[in-house]
Amino acid sequence: MSAHAPDCQAQDAELFSRAVIDIHCHILPGLDDGPDSFEISIAMAEMAIADGITHVIGTPHAHPNFAFDSAKIRERRDELQRLFEGRLILATGCDFHLSYENLEDIRFEPSRYTLNQKNYLLVEFADFSIPPALDQALHNLQLAGLVPIVTHPERNPLIRAQPERLFKWLGQGCYAQVTAQSLLGKFGRAAQETSQRWLAEGAVHFIASDAHNVTSRPLRLKETFDWVAKTHGEDVARALLVDNPLAAFEGRPLPFVPEASEGGLRKSDSRGPRGKKRFWFF
Length: 282
Prior knowledge:
- By secondary structure, this protein is α/β, with parallel strands linked by helices.
- The protein has one domain (8-250): TIM Barrel.
- The chain contains 11 helices and 9 strands.
- The chain has helices at 13-17, 38-50, 70-83, 100-105, 133-143, 157-161, 163-171, 180-183, 189-200, 222-232, 234-250; strands at residues 21-25, 55-58, 61-62, 89-92, 95-97, 120-124, 147-151, 175-179, 206-208.
- The strands form 2 sheets. It has a 6-stranded parallel sheet with strand order 3-5-6-7-8-9. The protein has a 3-stranded parallel sheet with strand order 1-2-4.
- α10 (222-232) crosses α11.
- Mean pLDDT is 88; it is low at 1-17 and 264-282.
């Protein structure tokens, strides 16, 4: 683990006992299309604390439109962490765009990109094209010891139109993360209906904020936690917003892996890893 990454075991036990964890958040300032000032980052952190969130992974885009500077990312994380020590646990990762350049670079230093420098990786698909070759790219990431998490597939019109591709990736051992606000209708009806259907079909493993600011893309999860608890039970809400995110944060196998089946087959609660071979090297 990087010397800059927070030591989970050394944190306050009380903080962990009430943890709600956000694995996808653009909280670090001046790096991408997230906050453009430290003041907004501070406001986002205060919003998270008020909402009951105790762990946030800052995941700036690793995208051709934004320079990905891991040293600067760690520096911004450390500066923000100092202000919130004992109140909020901050780590780093990225929103990894599946570009040729990124796929080449990650072979040499994967921890630059992974969540909390462990083995889970948020992967983002373009809205305009998903070439068949990307199926092999995901498989290659797995062979290298990484666990891909497909970010906000419900907001991607190509994946919504071809859900069988998502279910294929899940069948190969990838996971899916939907945006909390999608489930509540804040990203439109199509994203809401799709995310709710996939949740019912067992195709969702994480719910995260994908927050960018304190207004249109807020760092809030409690309202969605309450909705999931009411609709699917508190055990599912805890799995998707607490238990699985903490496992990813610490680099452990997920404790909750539903059997995803497109078409509405009822999911089953898995209290251990899938019966698939996993590759770990961290």
